[in-house]
Design a protein that fits this description.
heterodimer, A: six-stranded mixed β-barrel, 13 helices, B: alpha/beta, six-stranded mixed sheet, globular, disordered C terminus
């Protein structure tokens, strides 16, 4: 008998028991749906993290004081080690490096008239807009002269400007007060949205790092040095060169641990997606358990079905079905249940992740591979859990089966 | 040439330690067009004989030639093909697929017939033909639970006929039917036997049902103890005509009760 006929027979048999078929499918639908929805959410979260990190600038390399690696903090930031403006100067000499910006930040209240706002004041150098590919909305960024003389000038993030001056107002030329000192507002950055770690990149004020160090925080050291490489392809090479220069600057003997951390974009993505990954795997694992339960449900029903349909099997054998025909029929019934259930589950899972995206504004993205794997897996579940009942059916003796009450 | 020819057929079942010898050397021939009734008390071996004759089982020893082919040593799959193409089964319990229309039930053996490769429309046509031959009326799309016992057995007979088998094998076909319906069903067998020359092998333990056949074979203790022509053969059509009209609860199939004898 042709496979097509076996499919027809299996479909007819399933159609004869619609309620039971539907309930058995439900197990698969829920299992596959859960896996798809969970993987969708996890992948979406990862995508968001990646986008956030990338919004910092693709060629960006961050140098931090202290030492960390992807598996955890080793000595801690700023612990006995220092990044100083001279380090940044040394990095400017590197041929692969395009821009370098010192970074020293402090938190402070910023006041304009009756309005005030608590925000991060980031002391940077003039190259920052280039490093972060961050254009101005109003006005201009401060100049190298401002940095040299530690001028009391600042550039506001879009959020800060909105909060102090009201939305859509150009505050260029106004004066704000920070820790009882008057700062001239030179301009406003364009809005950039959430950054890595979920912080709002627009809620900050940029000032010359010299000003922040000397006139606001009084710190001697830099928090970070931001570097951009000429090309994204040479990021690793550039990072290595940076390490080498800093080891010389910091007099670290060969074999000694770095007292700084050079982090490229990929490192940051890896570090930040690690948690999301673990979460995704955990959720998908739990969802996977329900898939296995769904498979056991299929096996259970198929076993009941074989017993209940013993006389039908006997009749089929009597009118010329071979054992293999009966085996295929029941196997196909199981596979049809699991595949149709799996397909419906994919639709359901996709629907759930889309709904979450729409109503909860949660990021969700169902990758094509996951769908393909779900289809293959549900087929495999059908074959695996359908085989035993099908073999039981095929092994029946026609005489015994016909007599079965 | 006989359609069934068996020589020294034996069948031994192993039940734990001891052996049960269900058939102890059966030899007989059945010619094409015969209507043979096989009877005997339970344990006589008639069921075992029926299973072997129906290729549901293989003999322990002996030879079985069905329609010119030795089938006593065929593999299980080959036996399945022989059952599909050479044998039409009619059972006591009808064995129709539930929630499946009469038409689909009748078509079922065609689906397992790898030889014919009929299209759906051709399968339908054949199924309609055999359903008309057993006088089911217009109930082609009725489900088994919408049919009376007699009607269900008609569907089962139609199913047995659809692959044009060499022999129709009826195992207690009237066991679940009342007297009137039993006569109707036996009438169908007699008509198919007479008009189409279909060989019928009827297994029954009721003597009066056996008397619808042309030849009576009696089994006892695994052997044939009597094999003779039926002396006073019953004629279902005549008996049916002589019966009083069906009772009110059987009014439902009155229509084809009237139609069935008209065919003969």
């Amino acid at each position: 008998m042709s496979l097509l006929m076996t499919f027809r027979i299996a479909f007819k048999a399933l159609a004869r028991n619609k309620m039971r078929t539907a309930l058995t499918m439900l197990g698969m639908i829920i299992g596959v749906g859960a896996v798809i929805a969970m993987v969708g959410l996890g992948t979406g979260a990862q995508q968001v993290i990646e986008d956030q990190v990338k919004s910092a600038g693709t060629n960006l390399i961050t140098v931090m004081a202290g030492s960390v690696n992807a598996s955890g903090v080793r000595t801690g930031f700023g612990n006995s080690s220092k990044l100083v403006p001279e380090d940044a100067e040394a990095l400017r000499e590197l041929p692969l490096v395009e821009f370098v910006s010192e970074s020293a930040s402090t938190r402070s209240q910023i006041i304009y008239g009756a309005m005030n706002w608590n925000t991060n004041i980031e002391g940077v150098n003039i190259d920052l807009p280039m490093i972060r590919s961050w254009p101005m909305r109003y006005g201009t960024f401060f100049s190298s002269d401002d940095v040299r003389v530690a001028a009391k000038v600042c550039v506001l993030g879009a959020n800060v400007a909105d909060n102090l001056f009201g939305e859509g107002v150009d505050p260029t030329g106004e004066t704000v007060r920070v820790r009882n000192q008057l700062f001239k507002v030179l301009g406003v950055m364009t809005p950039k949205g959430a950054g890595s770690g979920g912080s709002n990149q627009d809620d900050r004020v940029f000032a010359p790092y010299t000003t922040v160090m000397k006139k606001l925080s009084g710190q001697q050291n830099l928090n970070q040095i931001l570097v951009s490489a000429y090309s994204a392809d040479s990021l690793d090479q550039t990072a290595a060169a940076i390490s080498e220069v800093l080891r010389i600057q910091h007099n670290i003997p060969p074999g000694g641990d770095d007292d700084f951390t050079v982090q490229t974009l990929d490192d940051m993505v890896a570090l930040r997606t690690q948690t999301a990954n673990t979460m995704t795997n955990l959720l998908a694992g739990i969802a996977g358990v329900s898939l296995v339960v769904g498979g056991i449900g299929i096996m259970n029903i198929m076993l009941v079905s074989v017993t209940e349909r013993t006389r039908e099997i006997g009749l089929r054998l009597a009118i010329g079905a071979r054992s293999s025909d009966v085996l295929m029929q029941f196997l196909i019934e199981a596979v049809v249940i699991s595949l149709v259930g799996g397909a419906t589950g994919i639709a359901l899972g996709y629907g759930i992740s889309e709904a979450l995206k729409y109503y909860q504004e949660m990021p969700a993205l169902v990758p094509v591979q996951t769908v393909a794997i779900a289809v293959l897996f549900s087929g495999a579940v059908g074959i695996f859990f359908g085989f035993y009942p099908a073999r039981k059916a095929a092994g029946l003796d026609p005489i015994e089966a016909l007599r079965f009450e | 040439m006989p359609v069934i020819s068996v020589r020294d057929l034996t069948k031994v079942y192993k039940m734990g330690d001891h052996e049960v010898r269900a058939l102890r050397g059966v030899s007989l021939d059945i010619e094409t067009g015969e209507f043979v009734a096989v009877t005997g008390p339970s344990g006589s071996g008639k069921s075992t004989f029926m299973h072997i004759a129906g290729c549901l089982d293989r003999p322990t020893s002996g030879e079985y030639i069905l329609d010119g082919r030795d089938v006593s040593k065929l593999s299980k799959d080959d036996l399945a093909r022989v059952r599909n193409q050479k044998i039409g089964f009619v059972f006591q319990g009808f064995n129709l697929l539930s929630r499946t229309s009469a038409l689909d039930n009748v078509e079922l053996p065609l689906l397992y017939n790898s030889k014919n490769g009929l299209k759906a429309s051709q399968r339908h046509k054949r199924a309609l033909e055999v359903l008309d031959a057993v006088g089911l009326g217009q109930r082609y799309h009725h489900m088994p639970n919408q049919l009376s016992g007699g009607q269900q057995q008609r569907v089962a007979i139609a199913r047995a006929l659809i692959n044009e088998p060499a022999i129709l094998l009826a195992d207690e076909p009237t066991g679940n039917l009342d007297t009137r319906t039993s006569i109707e069903v036996m009438g169908i067998f007699q008509r198919l036997n007479k008009e189409r020359g279909i060989t019928v092998l009827l297994i029954t333990h009721e003597m009066d049902i056996a008397e619808y056949g042309t030849r009576l074979i009696r089994f006892r203790d695994g052997r044939v103890v009597a094999d003779q022509a039926v002396k006073h053969r019953r004629n279902a059509a005549d008996e049916l005509a002589a019966l009083p009209p069906p009772e009110p609860d059987q009014i439902e199939h009155k229509e084809e009760d009237a139609a069935a004898p008209a065919h003969q």
